[in-house]
Amino acid sequence: MLKAIPRSPAPDLWQRAHDWPRDLDGHVFFARAILKVGKAMFEDWTGLEPQRKITAIPLPTNKESATESQRRFAHNLLVLYFPDSDKAQKQRHDNERKAGGHRIPYAEHSFTDSDWELIRPFAQERYEAEQVPLAKYASVRRAIADAATTGTLAFELRPLRGGTPRPMPQDFWNTEGFALDHRFASFTIDPARPYAVTGSAQEWLYVTSDSLEAFLASLGAKVAAPGADEYFSPYLSLAIKICRERGITRDHQPFKSELENLLEKQWRDLPPSKHLQSALATLMREPESQSGSAAPKAKKKTEKKR
Questions:
Q1: Mean of the per-residue pLDDT values for the chain?
Q2: What stretches of 21-105 show up as alpha helix (H) in DSSP?
Q3: Which of 262, 280, 267 is nearest to 129 (CA)?
Q4: Strands 203-208 and 155-159
Q5: pTM more than 0.70
Q6: How many whole angstroms separate alpha carbon 209 and alpha carbon 175?
């Protein structure tokens, strides 16, 4: 069972829904539209996915190759999961000294081989658990950005202090990176500097109700169960479900071991078979990813000989 450990705070506006502007006649505030799209794409969408932050780090097999961040994460997990270990007792002693006003360095990040092997499965479990909601939200973001770029979703802008929404140019969505991160965290844009992450004239983002409803209906059709004339075997149905949950695309390829773990956890009433789980995990990934990497290698362009 996963235990809670402190994590970084989520974007302020995602945690302060009471500060969001209200929906307007014919318009839905961007944050609420994001949640609606998430619910349409994933049956088990909780609405907390946008608030998730990366806190878990996979640990290498060899502890000598671990970074300081990985060692610190491993140290925290040892203290959390094994309170009677030497490290946990040392941490408590250090905490007592800190409470008494003594300045001491952070707990030493050295590990025995047995410590490292003991905690690696817990680190991997936590990492994989975090990836599921992160991947779902990434899929939602991609779907919204793509629909906005094509005009399927119509966006309008409203001044922060109030006023009548006005259409937002469609090409404002022809961007990536920090500009998109800013929009999905603050729900605003500066129309004078649409591709910047700062600006003195930020305005609220709204989606027109008609375009949102049409988009949600199209999503429902895409993720619906097979029709009466279609049949997916339990194995294929499970593979499709996990692909959707993890937001697998050509550019986003989870490691095979991660897919095998997910398949094993959701295998349920299917006949036990490590061989089938391994084969299915292989088939869920791009052929270029079979070398073991988490992303397909770019194909080299070769000129044909004349």
A1: 80
A2: 30-41, 68-81, 86-99
A3: 262
A4: antiparallel
A5: no
A6: 24
- Per-position b or e across 234-263, b if 16+ CB within 10 A of its CB: ebeebbeebbbbbbbeeeebbbbebbbbbb
Cα dist from 78 to 55, 120, 122, whole Å: 15, 10, 9
SS3 100: coil
Query: SS3 of 19, please?
Result: helix
Q: Where are the alpha helices (DSSP H) in the chain?
A: 12-15, 30-41, 68-81, 86-99, 113-150, 178-186, 209-223, 234-246, 256-265, 274-283
What pLDDT is attached to residue 221? 57
Residues 6+ apart with CB under 8 A from 112: none
pLDDT tens-place string over residues 290-304: 655 455 444 444 444
CA distance 183 to 179: 7
Distances (CA, A) of 171 to 69, 147, 183: 40, 12, 15
Candidates 116, 58, 128; CA nearest to 281 is: 128
Q: What CA–CA distances, in Å, run from 240 to 112, 177, 226, 250, 289?
A: 41, 28, 11, 15, 18
H/E segment holding residue 27: strand 27-29
Contact 7, 55 (CB under 8 A): yes
CA distance 139 to 248: 9
Question: In this predicted model, which residue has the larger pLDDT, 88 or 209?
Answer: 209
Enter the DSSP assignment of 63. Answer: G
Buried b or exposed e, range 147-163, using 16+ CB within 10 angstroms: bbeeeebbbbbbeeeee
Question: Are the beta carbons of 131 and 259 closer than 8 angstroms?
Answer: no
Sequence length of the chain is: 306
Cα–Cα distance between 208 and 154 in angstroms, integer?
6
Upper half-sphere CA count for residue 173 (Cβ side, 13 Å): 21
